[in-house]
Write a structure and sequence with these properties.
mainly alpha; Growth Hormone, Chain: A; transmembrane; 0% strand; 382 residues
């Protein structure tokens, strides 16, 4: 692969991840309007996170089989977004979110595995890829916050449809529906067995479950928390943008610090600092101070996902990379559903103030899981 081709592929897949970030950054500011429109409470609206998760898991299971049969660009989210744009009955809205999650799962796994397999500058490339994800997640709340204040709030998903159309066109033009991994693959049955034998894959899966769960819980519930607990107005939706903006910057500006301290040790440092900041959000009743702290938490958590992808790429055989990343990736949305749903269920009973202690507990669990990740044995054979 020439340097020019590498840059073209990286740019295309970065936009692909930006659409995933756009999707993840959309929902938080719209939650109160969705509750109002469908006349539902915290627990029922949290089902949105669950159905998206189930779709992503379905995509992960099908990814191992389909990664050689579906090229980039065959799984658009266009139909899902256009369905959501008309504000259909709530069960239909949930069904559309399921298919959207399935499509995103296949594209996410393909993008990560492709970039991880590029021999040059893999750490920088992975950092850029996930920083652009953060750009999408940063931009989305600015738009969805505006639509949340309009009568036709669901028209936000027409913007998402346009973003998705561009993504599919780019993937189709650049990759021409080529398979995501050109290397010779074992049969699907053997591939499943080989992936499931990798202990490092399972440990990393649970780490990603907690990490993505924390990330989506903050992005999804911080607006509601600030409105209910800090007296914030509609503009508090921009705090979600600040969080994802911090996430984006962290994946770029912290690269030298990551290399200086070491990728395995730096996760401990960032986790401890993020926990300290969450304590300030919990105990300091200041809207502006809380908004700044949330942005800094995003900055610190930003490098975790690309670091995790680089670490797992160094632990497993390259022929298993696409399927393994798809499997690991499925646990991310599991956390993205489980933690926000837990937050919604607990908020229904105790109030949305449960957000901060839950986040702190999950960040502590992250540290424990990362300890086991760093002790995993290398099983590369190529």
């Amino acid at each position: 692969m020439s340097i020019r081709d590498e840059r073209v592929y990286l740019a295309t897949l970065s936009y692909n991840l930006a659409t995933a970030g756009w999707n993840d950054g959309t929902l938080g500011p719209l939650l109160p309007r969705i509750q109002e429109h469908y006349q539902i409470g915290y627990t029922v609206v949290s089902i949105l996170f669950v159905v998206s998760c189930v779709g992503f898991i379905a995509g992960a299971f099908s990814n191992v089989y389909l990664s050689e049969r579906l090229g980039f660009g065959k799984v658009p989210q266009i139909l899902a977004y256009t369905t959501m744009a008309v504000a259909p009955p709530y069960p239909v809205f949930c069904l559309a979110l399921f298919f959207n999650g399935w499509a995103l799962s296949l594209q996410d796994a393909g993008s990560n595995s492709f970039v991880a397999s590029i021999p040059r500058n893999e750490k920088v490339n992975m950092g850029i890829l996930h920083a652009i994800y953060g750009v999408g997640a940063f931009a989305a709340p600015f738009v969805s916050t505006q639509f949340s204040q309009q009568k036709h709030w669901s028209f936000h998903y027409l913007i998402s449809t346009g973003v998705s159309i561009i993504n599919v066109a780019l993937l189709f033009y650049i990759f021409r529906l080529k398979p995501q991994n050109s290397q010779q693959q074992p049969t699907s049955e053997n591939l499943y067995k080989q992936i499931l034998k990798q202990k490092s894959v399972h440990i990393m899966s649970f780490f990603i479950l907690v990490y993505v769960g924390v990330e989506v819980t903050i992005g999804g519930w911080i607006f509601t928390y600030l409105v209910k607990e800090r007296g914030g107005g509609p503009s508090a939706g921009y705090v979600s943008a600040g969080f994802f903006g911090g996430l984006t910057l962290g994946r770029l500006v912290l690269l030298p610090i990551n290399d200086l301290i070491g990728h395995k040790r730096v996760v401990y440092v960032y986790s401890i600092l993020a926990i300290a900041l969450e304590f300030t959000v919990w105990f300091v009743p200041n809207l502006i101070g809380n908004a700044v702290a949330v942005s800094l938490v995003g900055l610190l958590l930003g490098p975790f996902y690309p670091i995790a992808m680089n670490v797992i790429a160094g632990l497993i055989p390259r022929r298993l990379l696409a399927g393994s990343i798809g499997w690991i990736g499925a646990f991310g949305p599991t956390g993205a559903a489980l933690l926000p749903f837990m937050t919604g269920a607990l908020a229904s009973k105790y109030g949305v103030q449960v957000l901060q202690p839950l986040l702190i507990a999950m960040m502590a669990a992250q540290i424990v899981l990362w300890f086991f990740v760093t002790r995993a044995k290398v099983s590369r054979e190529d």
